[in-house]
Amino acid sequence: MTLLGEAAVTCNSGTQLHNELLHSGKLNEYGVIVPFSADCKGQFLSHVVSGSVASRKKEAAFPRSPPSHTAPRRVVRSTRHNQGMSRNRLYYFNVTVFGKELHLRLKPNRRLVSPGAQAEWQEDFQKVYQEPLKQGCIFTGGVSGMPGASVAISNCDGLAGLIRTDSGEFFIEPLERGQWEKEKQGRAHVVYRRSAIRQERAEAVKDHHNEVLGFSVGQLPNALNVIEDQVGEAERKRRHAKKDDYNIEVLLAVDDSVVRFHGKEHVQNYVLTLMNIVDEIYHDESLGVHINIVLVRMIMVGYRQSISLIERGNPSRSLEQVCRWAHSQQRSDPEHAEYHDHAVFLTRQDFGPAGMQGYAPVTGMCHPLRSCTLNHEDGFSSAFVVAHETGHVLGMEHDGQGNRCADETSMGSIMAPLVQAAFHRYHWSRCSKQELNRYIHSYDCLLDDPFEHNWPKLPELPGINYSMDEQCRFDFGVGYKTCTA
User: Fold this and answer.
1) pLDDT tens profile 139-150
2) What range(s) does the Peptidase M12B domain occupy (predicted)?
3) Could you tell me which residues come within 8 angstroms of residue 336 by beta carbon, excluding any fewer than 6 positions away?
């Protein structure tokens, strides 16, 4: 079932995002559909599309009355091996996108969340609660019969994410969150084109960045040089990724304005889906380099801290404070599972002029104080803002500004200076590719692989070197052998 245009939709509590999109005029074309789980041939199996994690959502959600003191938890680095999913299993869903039924073929994205990653809640500048970061409901894949299509989606609570085909880029999300218990009868989802999101002030939705972040020598920590020397020495001891394979280990900070908008019970699922889309954008072949976005830590920033970090109307000062805060959250040991290379800060506060989407330093990657971005969160389209700002930190300039790629801005290039309606498939321009290649080899912090660890060698079992008969002789003496009765 598909309803197009101004469909009659009844919205209950928890639909703030959809009220904003569907009823404020920001979305000029959408469809309301009921997706379903399918088999490998696209045949209907069930209307239940949420993973098993959804049924346990309330248990995992941030408690209403978090304990004031949480016992320290041992970091478990092997979490990814215990997800209850077969590594080779594919998952299938059928989704109708503006009259065309798509058969999604998905596999778990096991490299978005690192082993041992934690989701942490802070209040009044202190950690009050933490839990392992979810990683069992994030997927990537393609569409049957569409070789060029790609999908970055989650089923933590319904289907949510990005579907990219030759005919366009589409976002999907449940019409109402937290309604997985109703899925057996079919659960309504909204599908809309990325290009259908109306910008209220097209001239104002500019991205801003600065060549050198405004930190004076006096403002930097006195021990900055020592810190950099220590980090450089420790980095050489870290496990290296495969050649030409880079991993950006990310601290994802979600401020109170984002938490309040999406709700404490839903915000983790939402931002995981958002970052899964960012990861998919960085896997586009036009980039020419294989870069993985890996979440090593997520912090939900408390109200007082959030308002102290963002100075309304002052993007430079806000970015400086956010970068300093991220540096203060860094783990001292580079071998720690939550040691990050880069910080992504999401907020709904107005840190700059009306319509400003993001702010970031250029070529700041791996620097203790400059590897960070400030991003205005405004739905799944914000994934392209995060990708764009992180591109600046990697050394990319705006297309058409100081390079010869102005012709690509109208074709959907990620580094276009204006966030434009995407009537074309997104891609990285030839200039972005060249600028990245100019700097990527200098970012040593991206060379280690958080999924490979120097595990101690397990003792070999006797059966590897000795037959059953030999083991019997060792235990009971000459003349004994395996009983075959």
Assistant:
1) 999 999 999 999
2) 246-450
3) 75
Residue 325 backbone zone (phi > 0: left; psi -120 to 50: alpha; other: beta): alpha
Q: In the predicted model, is pLDDT for residue 456 greater than 50?
A: no
Q: How many helices (H) and strands (E) does the chain have?
A: 12, 19
**Cα angle for residues 296, 298, 299 (degrees, 5° grid):** 140
Q: Which residues contact 215 (CB under 8 A, 6 or more apart)?
A: 320, 369, 370
208 is in an annotated binding site: no
**Residue 81, annotated as binding a ligand:** no
What is the rounded average pLDDT of the residues 122-134? 93
Residue 72 has pLDDT above 50, yes or no: no
Q: What is the pLDDT of residue 419?
A: 63
For residue range 238-291, list pLDDT tens digits in order.
445 566 799 999 999 999 999 999 999 999 999 999 999 999 999 999 999 999
Residue 217: exposure state from Cβ atoms within 10 A (0-12, 13-18, ≥19): exposed
pLDDT value of position 403: 94
pLDDT tens-digit readout, 207-242: 555 433 433 333 333 333 333 333 443 443 344 556
Q: Active site includes 389? A: yes
- CA-to-CA distance for 295 and 374, rounded, in angstroms? 17
Q: Which residues lie below 8 Å from residue 209, measured CB to CB, with a gap of 6+? A: 358, 359, 360, 361, 362, 389, 392
Q: Which residue has the tokens 């309330």?
A: 58
Q: Are 11 and 176 in contact (CB under 8 A)?
A: yes
Q: What is the pTM for the complete model shown?
A: 0.80
Neighbour-count burial of 210, counting CB atoms closer than 10 A to its CB (0-12 exposed, 13-18 middle, 19+ buried)? middle
Check: CB of residue 45 under 8 Å from CB of residue 32. no
**CA angle, residues 225, 231, 236, in degrees to nearest 5:** 135
Six token digits for residue 355 = 């319509």
Residue 135 DSSP code = -
Please tell me whether 388 is known to bind a ligand: yes
DSSP run (H or E) holding 278:
helix 267-282
Dist CA 234 CA 243 (whole Å): 20
- Active-site hit among 389, 397, 408, 435: 389
Residue 68's pLDDT is what?
38
CB 378 within 8 A of CB 204: no
Instruction: Please give the distance of CA 214 from its chain centroid, rounded to a whole number.
Output: 28
The most distant pair of C-alpha atoms in the chain lies apart, rounded to whole Å, by 90
